[in-house]
Amino acid sequence: MDAFQLHSGIPSLSPINSEDVFVFFSVMGESLQRYNAQQVLGRSELDRLTLYRTLGKRNEFLFGRLFMRKILGKMINKSPREVSILINENKRPYLQEENLQFNLSHSFGGFALIVSPDYAVGVDIEYRKRKISLEDGSHVFMPEEKASMKAKDATAAKEEFLLRWTLKEAIYKAANVGTQLLFNEFELGFDPPKVYSHSDHLDDYGWELGHAFPHSDYILAFAVKNSGSPPLRFHFHQIIL
Predict the structure, then answer these.
(1) What is the 8-class DSSP label of residue 29?
(2) For residue 211, which of 125, 144, 148 has the smallest C-alpha distance?
(3) How far apart are alpha carbons 83 and 77 in whole angstroms?
(4) How far apart are CA 55 and CA 41, in angstroms?
(5) By the 8 A CB rule, do 161 and 132 touch?
(6) What CA–CA distance (Å, rounded) separates 78 from 81?
């Protein structure tokens, strides 16, 4: 996998071809005072912003939307405020008048966005220093996966937990079928990453899966539903806003 290219601001992203997949990473700064929410967010987003009770949660939401809108706007030649984002029945954002497929994830100040012009995509990011118990995944992992982690020491088990958890999240998001798909209805293989589905709502073929480590504190997983023709071309960017 290519290393993340560091950019101050959003780089030039055109021309974009059907086989291009973009993965972006950013860390939220300490202050968002230079950003005016009224100039960035849509009406429904401004309404959501008022529902967050703490400044930290409001800043997290604002940064995520700014991060997403700036990148998508660059791709479709619009200002961040002009990007029209709607929410589908599975609570997944989409663009009203564009075919771009995208997905956003955040964890403890780290943000990830994946974008493809044609293919269904999902991304998940997790903070590697968070406290984790294998019991946290009791509803997520299949018996073979639980056994694999229990057979390892604490450090290795936590790393495998994060690898499996993030990749399952990314696949779930790319599948875009909502609660019809359960996490414990599919399991993962590695080297290379592969999904084995036991659900009618998830095909186990045609997936491009992977992990990235854009920062020592974060692990990122991505999933793209692709037939394999043409082969995908990934671009990894770390953005400083």
Answers:
(1) -
(2) 125
(3) 9
(4) 17
(5) yes
(6) 8
| Nearest alpha-carbon partner for 93 in 83, 108, 80, 81 | 83
Do 24 and 112 form a contact (C-beta atoms < 8 A)?
yes
Cis (ω within 30 of 0) for the bond into 230? Answer: yes
CA–CA distance, 158 with 166 (Å, rounded to integer): 12
N residues, the chain:
241
Question: Can you tell me whether residue 21 is helix, strand or coil?
Answer: strand
Which residues are CB-contacts of 197 (< 8 A; sequence separation ≥ 6)?
185, 186, 203, 204
Profile the chain (241 residues) by mean pLDDT over runs of 10 residues: 85 89 91 74 88 89 92 92 88 86 96 95 96 87 94 95 97 94 95 95 94 96 87 94 86
pTM given for the model: 0.94
Partners of 225 in the β-ladder: 120, 207
What's the start-to-end Cα distance of the chain, in Å?
24
Taking residue 150's Cβ as centre, other Cβ atoms within 10 Å add up to 9
Tracing tokens 């997520």 back to the chain, one arrives at 140
Helix or strand run (H / E) with residue 154: helix 154-175
Phi, psi of 87 (to 5 degrees): -120, 130
Which residues are bridge partners to 161 per DSSP?
none
Beta strand pairing call for 218-225 and 93-95? unpaired
Query: What distance in Å separates the CA atoms of residue 39 and residue 42, rounded to the nearest whole number?
Result: 8
123 with 115: CB under 8 angstroms?
Answer: no
